[in-house]
Fold these 2 entries.
Entry 1:
Amino acid sequence: MSKSGSKLWGGRFSETTDAFVETFTASVEFDQRLYRHDIAGSVAHAQMLKKIGVLTTDECDQICNGLAQIQTEVEQGKFDWSVGLEDVHMNIEARLTELLGDAGKKLHTGRSRNDQVATDIRLYLRDEIDSLLAELSRLQSGLLDLAEREANTLMPGFTHLQVAQPISFGHHMLAWFEMLVRDAERLEDCRKRVNVMPLGSAALAGTSYPLDREYSAELLGFERPCNNSLDGVSDRDFAIEFCAAGALIMTHLSRMAEELVLWTSAQFNFIELPDRFCTGSSIMPQKKNPDVPELVRGKSGRVNGNLIALLTLMKGQPLAYNKDNQEDKEPLFDTVDTLRGSLRAFADMIPAIQTRKENMLNAAKQGFSTATDLADYLVRKGTPFRDAHEVVGKAVQACSQKGCDLADLSLTELQHFSKVITEDVYDVLTIEGSVASRNHLGGTAPQQVLEQVKKQRQLFKRV
Ligand code: ARG
């Protein structure tokens, strides 16, 4: 009989599974990536069974050695995955029995694939969250370094994508940094709920063996065993939460990507990305396209899709386990892979950004970005704000007609708009003066940017 004809659950069946149904219901093609966590879960389960006297020491040792051998086989590409054995769990268990005979058959005592798979995904996701957090903090360090390097690089700040007020480029980088601080917090928070152990829930109702679930949880590094077996096998909230956190990370990367795309365009020409992060066009020889940011921006769509897929997957499910749940894996894995790739690309790319300081400064000078500073100057000289607003509006209109900036007007010309204006007005009309004056917590003055960088580096060190 072929492997597919000898199902681990075949006892009550009198005909073999339809060939198409076998492929249709199998998950091994994608869940084999859980092999390491499946093995870790099985080792802990076997050790717990030994502790409560269900397995002998010898059986437990045989099982652990057999599982170690299987792990090596998988890692060396020698493991023969079979669709007929449906999923990663039964592939590994069948191989264990092939290796050990009866001892292998005892591993599944007091366990179901339902609590097994729920445990495996949590173990897997916990590892992935840790490595995503590491990648996220690499990107954050890169942003802090860039913010420090470019604290004195001045650019126009925008609202409505219209020049608004001059800002420090470093300040802009710190805004990106803050988005990622929240992202890291969300992942860390989600990890707490991932780190609860379903193992021991068995199929849905628990088991008649006196399992020591605290012990298995300790062996696997879980915070605690779950409190309810029905919830244990059926809860996928943690995967949804992770995808939601992932969707926000991608949203942030996508917004950053959009700015990088704009800034590298000939129209802005604010920054340069090194050639190794760009590609050319097969027809237009002059092109250097910002493919990496564009692709990350595009990939945010699939992560949003994965989140919706999981929410929809869960919404109509009665307790407890349903086969629907097998559909949780691909969206989850795709989210992990997309995040890993996108964060890596950004973490590699950010430190390599070259700024075109002259162009940014010139852009900041256009669009009357110091108009608010002139209004504030008039207020300091005793003009009520609304009048000051009106006066500056008039001055801007005159400059528009002349085709010059506010700072290009002579003192006499400026005094034509308001008598209180004196020579010191030019201190606030310059881009440097404007930026330097916003010198309070959260403001754009280079001094504040440098202080923030220092503070954030300290906070970073503490975690
Ligand atoms: N491959 C299944 C999944 O991914 C494992 C659990 C199967 N359990 C069952 N009762 N059919 O969810």
Entry 2:
Amino acid sequence: MALIVQKYGGTSVGSVERIQNVAERVIETYQQGNEVVVVVSAMGKSTDHLIELANNISDSPSKRELDLLVSTGEQISMSLLAMAIQQRGYDAVSLTGWQAGIKTEAVHGNARIMDIDPKRINGELATGKIVIVAGFQGITENEEIATLGRGGSDTTAVALAASLKAEKCEIYTDVTGVFTTDPRVVKGARKLEAISYDEMLELANLGAGVLHPRSVEFAKNYDVPLEVRSSIDKETGTRIEEEVEMEGNLMVRGIAFEDNVTKVTVHGLPDGMATLSTLFTTLSNHHINVDIIIQNTNGNQSTDISFSVDSVALQETLEVLSQHQSQLNFEQVSYEGDLAKVSIVGSGMISNPGVAAKMFDVLARDQIKVKMVSTSEIKVSTIVDSSSMITAIECLHDAFELEARKPVSTV
Ligand code: ASP
Ligand code: MG
């Protein structure tokens, strides 16, 4: 008998009909002779609504109370799903994060899973039940409810699959798989048959919303076979696994993008050994997440440092810099908003030089100015004007022949 973990996202459990549909699919898997553990998200946009309620009550709701509040969303869908399964004559039990033995670090709003005690789940499975677990939540050592960050139910599912040594973890969502880029943006976007953990991790971190980045990290570290597929359509989805061959001379697997980027430049910093560390320590002490960094040393012992931030963090970044101007000893700050990040990802880059060059060439031909660049072994990210973002994605999708390819094969 195989154990399968299935996770259903917010849209997939967004209404009574959808929950009935999920119940049918879960039962189908169970009837095929599998043990089934199901992880659910909150219904539809209910997490957003709960956060909005909190913000209407208080300017800065306590993080502890916020976690208690938002963790209720998943408890609604898990119990409704259990009822829907029971209604069909099957035995099901729903469990909150703590009942399921999910232990997290002592952080509210973005906690990591530290450990899972699978005793209760295993006990329930042993009596033949379908087990449903609330996604996105766990319990700290001090028995406080903590949530895992937006989109964190994916991570609950993969962590459970690892801990229960499941045969696979299926992530059911409102798209049919992982695409070469967002099919809502590029018409020719193609569904991938398979993608490697590393590529998926880059895409998830670079803004492809399909999977919570930490879930991919977990899957990679514990070798959990993952599949992203639709909860409505029956077609096979996208497998995420360790090694996935690049087809032919394909170098790029997918394109991710993110709007709302701002480039901040701090001018006239002292050109000393400690400058970078002081500047970025100051920003990180204020929890400002910087992304791409560029340093420009001027001839005259001073240096300019540019970095990109999410536009929502701009105001705070400017305030922090201005509060620390004398300590950091810079002349002035400037910034450029309305930027976007467009990234190409593919393990084919490791063995093919010239991928970045080709990317810049394509963008230049279309008169798209690249403002910042960062690379890793398997990705190249560029910062461009928001207004050229879509053209950039389309041209790159075309130039790297992502549309024409047959689905990538792993055989
Ligand atoms: N309900 C949570 C959210 O909306 C967690 C999840 O759906 O994965 O972020
Ligand atoms: Mg999600």
